[in-house]
Fold this protein.
Amino acid sequence: MSRAGDRESAASFAGRAAIVTGAAGGIGRATAATLAVRGAAVLVADRREDVEATAAELAGSGAEIVARTVDVTSPAEVEAMVVAAAERFGRLDVLVNNAGATGVPTAIADQDPAAFDRVFAINVRGVFLGMKYAMPHLAAGGGGAIVNVSSVTAVRPLPGLGAYSASKEAVVSLTRVAALEGATAGVRVNAVLPGPTATRMIGTEDFSGDVPLGRAAAPEEPAEAICFLASDAASFVTGETLLVDGGMSAGGPAQRWGAD
Ligand SMILES: NC(=O)c1ccc[n+]([C@@H]2O[C@H](COP(=O)([O-])OP(=O)(O)OC[C@H]3O[C@@H](n4cnc5c(N)ncnc54)[C@H](O)[C@@H]3O)[C@@H](O)[C@H]2O)c1
């Protein structure tokens, strides 16, 4: 734990070991890249097999990167992922539960119940399983940090995204409970709530009119917030939700009322 005197190194992950789920691309890949550049050994996990290619690219920076194909809805696969990281790196300090899916946008009246359950399985059960299996390792190592990737839709739900919006609010609730349960063991648990971010998830959709800053985020922007919360720079932050949404949840549109 860093104190006032060593704040300058608080953003470093030298000697630390991390897991990032959903790391084949997008925000997960950017997070893994940032952690690696700052010194962490990283296990990158995804259900997509091209996570191997992502790992090979990230390892080019000289970092220790391990790829693993994992379905975060599977208790056995998530437990094995955590054990593999702890054994390979000899420690575990950080878990980023980033894997997520929107499902096909559908009004509640038209939603297929199985499709609803699938979104919850990935976004909520996946986060739950990651925390369930990682928290004992983090606690045994004297503490650590978990960052769960929620969404601005947790606080500003979108029509057609009922399952997704509700699942991301559930992630916030789980984050707070885990923060309370992990506190005495030194395990901090926080959530990042990205706004529209230029990844495969939103494709070519134009959100510029919805975002006061007038654009989607680059994946590196929420990744930076995730890494802050995972680092010693956030040593007194737990149970917190950090919106990285270009002002989307701040209130109304950026334009002044009455202006042309
Ligand atoms: N892009 C946005 O606008 C946006 C906004 C708010 C929140 N988010 C959240 O950010 C996170 C990352 O999304 P992204 O934007 O980088 O999109 P993305 O689609 O590039 O990344 C999501 C990753 O999760 C993986 N994944 C999905 N289901 C999985 C499973 N069962 N097991 C393992 N991996 C699985 C996917 O294969 C994919 O690589 C998600 O949780 C998403 O909900 C994204």
The pocket of nicotinamide-adenine-dinucleotide is lined by residues 21-22, 24-28, 46-48, 70-73, 98-101, 122, 149, 151, 194, 196-197, 199-202 (CB under 6 Å). The mean pLDDT is 94.
